[in-house]
Amino acid sequence: MNDTIMIKNLSFGFAEKQVLNHITFHVQEGEIFGLLGPSGAGKTTLIKILTGQLQQSDGYAKLLGKDSKKLSGTERRQIGTMMDNFGLYERLSVYDNLSFYADIYHVSRSAINEILKNIGLYEGRGIAVSKLSKGMKNRLSLARALMNNAKILFLDEPTAGLDPATTREIHDVLLSQKKKGTTIFLTTHNMFEAEDLCDHIALLSKGNIIETGKPADICRKYNHLNKLQITLKNGETIILENGSASANTVKEYLENGSIDAIHSTEPTLETVFIELTGKGLDGYE
Length: 285
Description:
four-stranded antiparallel beta sheet; 33% helix; 3 domains; alpha/beta
C-alpha cells in the first residue's frame, strides 16, 4: 500500500518557541490516521503546514508523492480541509456557501444536494450560517471539505464540542469516505474517537512524536499489569493473572454460570499518554 502522506524530520518554530521538533511518520493510502495530543501540542500547526498555510523551518512533507510545498493547483484541489469553521461565510446560506466552493473547485453544483443529504443538512440548506448551531456548522465545514471529492481529507478536531449523536453521524460519514478510498488525517484529543475510527495514530506532546502505531497495539505494549478482571453476578470483582495459571479458575466460573463480565486490563490511549507525559490528552495533570 502506498504512503499518501510522508513526513520526515519536520520542524517548525517562531521567535523563541519550537512548535514541532523533527517529527517523522507516514500515512497510508485509504486509512484514517489520528494525531492525538492536548491543545497546544502542535496538531493544528502541522495541518497548516501540510495544507500549505505555513511552511516548515526544517525537514519535508510529501503528499501524493510530491513535495507539499510544490503541489500544483490541480493537485491542491485533491485535498479537502476542515478547520474550526474556517472559510464559512456567515451571511450566506448553507447552500450558497457550498455553491461558492463548488465554483472555486470547478465541480458541478449538482453534487451539493446529495452531499447535504449525506451530512444531514439538506433540510437546513436555506438557513444563513450565522443562525446555525455549532453542530450544524461543523457539518457544513465537513460538507465543504467533501465538495471536491478529495483524495486526502485533513480534519482538525472534527467533533470537538458536539453531542454524542452528532459525533456518531460524522463518524459514519468519515467511515463512508474511507470505504471510497479517501485518506483521512484527523487531529483529536478524544481517545474514544481515535480508538473507534483510526487505523494508526501518533501521540504528539510538546511538538514531539512520542509513540506511533495501531491504537490496540499501543495499548497492549503498555499493558504492564496484564491481568483479567472478572465481575461475578453477585457483584464481586476478581483479579487474576492473564495466563495459563488462571485457566482452571476461569473455567470453573464459566461452568457455574457465575460470570457477569470479563475484561483484560490493557490501558486506554489516555492512560498510555499519561504514563509517557505525566498529563492527559486534555492537557491537565
